[in-house]
Amino acid sequence: MPNQTEATQKHYRTAYFIVRWILGILFLMAGYWKVFVLGATQHAQQFFVAGYADYWIPPWLLTVLGNVIPYWELAAGVLLIVAYRMREVLASLGVLLMITTYGHALKEPLFDITGHTFSRLALIIFLLLMFRYKDRLGVDGWLEHKQTDS
Fold it and tell me: pTM for the whole thing?
């Protein structure tokens, strides 16, 4: 990659910041709604246990996933917004999308991922590919800057 100017790097960091916040808000609000409005137990019953009762997945696993995913989304959204442990959070969200994509595809083999699944995946990939330009306005950037100053 050719040597980039500081101005170009600032543009990349700005793009990283904006995408990080958008993705964080999406997951935070999805988790918030599932935890505090619908309720994690209701989410598990309605969307997992009842929705997949006729499939191979054992009810105990559906219950666990249905209860864990809302908190996972909520926590990941917060961690994205504050930019803490970004690589790990993004990887975990990739796993979450694999789980939910499998579930949708199990019910509908030609499931159209162009809705929220694809857009979130694209934002995750963008952030992972642009990781070296991470913004300095998050915890990871602050910790890295503090470590280089020591």
Answer: 0.90
